[in-house]
Amino acid sequence: MTSDSPQARTLYRKLVDAHTVTALDADNVLLYADLHLMNEYTSPQAFAGLAAQGRAVPEPGQQVAVVDHIIPTHAESPRRIQDPASALQARNLKRNCELHDIPLFDTNDPLQGIEHVIAPEHGMIRPGMVVLCGDSHTTTYGALGALGFGIGTSEVEHVLATQTLVYRLARDMRIRVDGALPRGTTSKDLILHIISRISAQGARGYVVEFAGPAVDALSVEARMTLCNMTVEAGARGALIAPDEATTEYVLARAADIDATMAAAARRHWQTLHSDDGARFDAELRFDAAEVAPYVTWGTSPDQAIPIDAPVPRLADAADDIARAAAAKALDYIGLAPGDSLHGLPVQRVFIGSCTNGRIEDLRAVAAVVRGRKVASGVRAMVVPGSGAVREQAEREGIAAVLIDAGFEWRKPGCSMCLAMNDDMLAPGERCASTTNRNFEGRQGRGGRTHLMSPAMAAAAALCGRITDVRALEPAHA
């Protein structure tokens, strides 16, 4: 990784250099982690490994655990995990956290939620940090100028025992987005647009830094959506240089940062940007004006098109491998080349996940559905990303709007993002979903998933079919 000037470094390189304990060789370093997040399904083997070696966790205050993937989201109080295997995972996590004095957002904690939602909202993520988690969507934290990425179970054990990770250096990519997003489009549409253009492997081996006026104009929560889904292009990380919006977001939530510390933090955070003259290994440029509301047509997030475009022809695939993958995806999803997604009936709508389960997302949904009703025959669910988001939505009247419209108002959790709990699709059901992945069986065996923005999913719920939200008349108050 080189630069035009010996002193000029990318933001990614600055973060790696600041956390390198020692260089192991030309391609690998021992990387220090400021924060390690855990969930119930990628941590059991790691704790078992610690126990087998008689090891302790030397830095318990730099670990945070959450029960989120397996938890039911129905309205029962207190919540009970009925599935025996899932209940065992939750009990084991609680026992291990108590043993090692690790903070835990447990099943009935009022602040429980999805790990990638609760960590930023409680001020745990600050610019300049390295954050690790046994979950691929840890890239979310790049929205706050932190280097976050997912790790495997064996690596979870290593981090618990040492607070470090043997880390292979990534390459640098910068994606600049010029212009402004058009009406009716969001950062979810922007990232689907980018992934569809560069492919699911287009950023493989890179940490992507997003820049440009369209990115600068995004809210902090919208930036989280952008960074969250960058992993769907194969990226090893995503970053956005912190600005005043980032600083205000973090300082409003980080209760431990007093006025003196805040001044020092501001000065440091202002240095967290790529230097003039820093060279990237790859640079791409997009025009936000070309972004439309996007919907996936296949079984990979890069198989996405604008709502007014036809499903691509197989002959247009890049190569024989892509052509075979497209044919397989169309067979699973029940579509054919040339079909229109506009007007395609849906039986389910899911709004939530670490991609689009924040308060800003729920406000966008309420703005579309206020005064309207969910279409007959559609089961529509809204699952807030955390207890704090749920409480705020209820306080703002958003929950009442959604309930009046016919949405199910659920408790927080990963829910139907993946079929690891009791919220899942039946075989053949078609779902408009705000999640991050549309793989075969991701939301339930035989379920058919179409990824889209919260506003587009809300429109699908009202119309009973995939619909261009821009065509809906403004809802009355």
From TrEMBL:
EC number(s) per entry: 4.2.1.33
PROSITE patterns assigned: ACONITASE_1, ACONITASE_2
Pathway where this protein functions: Amino-acid biosynthesis; L-leucine biosynthesis; L-leucine from 3-methyl-2-oxobutanoate: step 2/4
Top-level taxon: Bacteria
Catalytic activity: (2R,3S)-3-isopropylmalate = (2S)-2-isopropylmalate
Textual note on the cofactor: Binds 1 [4Fe-4S] cluster per subunit.
Binding site for [4Fe-4S] cluster: C354, C414, C417
Name listed for the protein in its UniProt record: 3-isopropylmalate dehydratase large subunit
Species this chain originates from: Cupriavidus respiraculi
